[in-house]
Amino acid sequence: MATHDVKTDPLADDKKIEDIEEKKTSSDAEIEANQLEIDEKEARRILSKVDYRLVPVLALLYLVAFIDRSNIGNAKVAGLTADLHMHGLQYNTAVTLFFVPYTLLEVPSNIVLKLMRPSRWIAILMFSWGVVMTLMGLTSSYGGLLAGRFFLGVTESGFFPAATFLLTLWYRRYEVQRRMAVFYVAASLSGAFSGLLAYAIQKLEGRSGLGGWQWIFIIEGLVPVGLATIIWKVLPDSPETARFLTQPERDFLVRRLADETGSGRGHVTNQDKMGKKYIIAGLSDWKIWAAVVIFWGNTVGVYGFTATVPTVINGLGYSAANAQLLTIPIYVFASIVTIIFAWWSDYAKTRSPFIIAGFAIACCGFIAQLAIPHPKYPGLTYGFLFPVAGGLYCPFIILVSWIANSLAPSSKRAVGMALLISVGNMGGIMGSNIYLEREKPKYKTGFGVSLAMCCTAIAMTFVIRMAYKRENTKREALLREHGEEVIRARYTEQEMLDLGDKSPFYRYTL
C-alpha cells in the first residue's frame, strides 16, 4: 500500500495565522466599539435620571439665593433709602457689607461640606439666610439694615461653592458645565424674577404699616425658610449614596468618574478624606489666584450692575415700576447667552476662548455706555445694557468649570473652588462702590472701572491658558520618554490618586 508524505507550506500556514489574528483583532475591535456604545447609552440614561433630580433643585435654590442677596436694588427703588433716611454712600456701604463675611467664610464652609452631608449643610444655610432676610423686612433703622446685610453674608456664604462642588461629584469634565450653566442661569433669571416680584410686592405698600421695600424683604425671605424644611430630603449627596439610583447605576457613575483624567490613562478619586495637605494644596495653587483676577472681571461688573440697573433705567426717565419691569428682558437675554456659551464650550471641549469672547462682548457694552450722552438717548442706552449683562454673566460659569476641571482630588477641588469664589467675590466690594449716586445716570466711574476689569480678565485668561498648555506638553513628553509602565512603577495606586491633578496622567483643560 503506497503512502504519501503530507507536506505543509510554511507560507500558507503563516497566512492562515495572520488571517486568524486579523479576524480576532477585528472581532476585539468590534466588541470594544459595541461596549463603548453600550456604555455611552447607559451613561445618557443614568445621567438623565441625575439631571432631573439634581439640576432643577440646585437651580431653584440659587434663584432664591441670588434674589435675596440682590433685592436691595429693588428695595431701593421701592423706598428703602427714603424711609431709612439714607444719604451719600450709605446705600453703597450696605451693599458692600454683605461681601465681607461672604468672602471670608466660603472656604471654611466647603471644608465643613466635605465633612458632612451636603444636603443637610445646604438646608442649614438656606434656613439661616431666610430668617435673616425676613428680619431685615422688620428693621426701622440704617443700623438694622447694616446688621441684616452682614448676617446675610454670613449665612449665604457657603451655598454657591457648595452647589458648584456638588455638581462636580456627579459629572465628567465636559458634562458638568452645561448642567452648571442651567444652575447658574438662575442668577441671570433672578434679576428678571426679582424685578417682577418687586413690581408686584411693592403694591403692598402701607399694609400692616409696612413699606413696599419691607414686604419685598419679608416675602422673599420666607421662601428659603420653607424650602429648607424639605430640601435636606430631596437633594442627593453623591453617586455612592443616591437612593434614586440602583446599585449597578451607582457603581457605573463612580467608575466612569474615576477614569476622568483628561488623558484616558490613570485614575482620580472623589472618595478622599479632607486633610491638611489638600487644604494647603488648594490654597497655594497660583493658577487659582490668577483665576481670581478673571473672577473679578465678572463680580465687579455684575454686582455693581445688578444693584444699580433699576436705578440706571429709572434715571433714563422711566417710572419706578416700569424700571423694575424693564430689567426683565436684560436678564433673560443674559440667561440665553450663558446657556449657549456653556453648551458650545462643552461641545468644543475648551474653556478659555469662550471666557475671552464673553468679556469682549461686555467691553463693547461698557464702551457704548461711556460714549452715549445720558440721558439724551434712553432707548439706545437701554439697548446697550443687554451686551453688558450677557457679556458679564456668560464667562463666569465657564471660569468656575475651568478651574474645577483642573483640580483633583475632590478635597483639593472643594478648597480651590471655594477660594476662587470667596476671594473672587471680593470684587463685589469694589463693584458696590463704583456706581456713585452723584454720577447718575451716566455712572462714568462704574462703567469705566468695569471695562478696565474686563480687559484685565481677558489678559489673565491668556496667562492661565499658556500655563496649562505648557504643563500638558511637559507631561506628554515625560510619557513619551519613559513610557507609561515605567511611570506607573514609580507610584502605588494610592500615591497616584493622592497626586490628583499633579499626576503625570492628568491633563488640564484649555
UniProtKB/TrEMBL annotation:
GO cellular component, one term: membrane
Bilayer topology term: Multi-pass membrane protein
Intracellular or extracellular location(s): Membrane
Transmembrane segments: 50-68, 88-107, 119-138, 150-170, 182-201, 213-235, 286-305, 325-344, 353-372, 384-403, 415-435, 447-468
Gene Ontology MF terms: transmembrane transporter activity
InterPro entries: MFS (IPR011701), MFS_dom (IPR020846), MFS_trans_sf (IPR036259)
The protein's name: MFS general substrate transporter
Name of one Pfam family that matches: MFS_1
UniProt entry keywords in alphabetical sequence: Membrane, Transmembrane, Transmembrane helix, Transport
SUPFAM superfamilies hit by this protein: MFS general substrate transporter
Lineage of source species: Eukaryota, Fungi, Dikarya, Ascomycota, Pezizomycotina
Principal location: membrane
Region Disordered, annotated ranges: 1-26
Signal sequence coordinates: none
Superkingdom field: Eukaryota
Domain Major facilitator superfamily (MFS) profile: 54-469
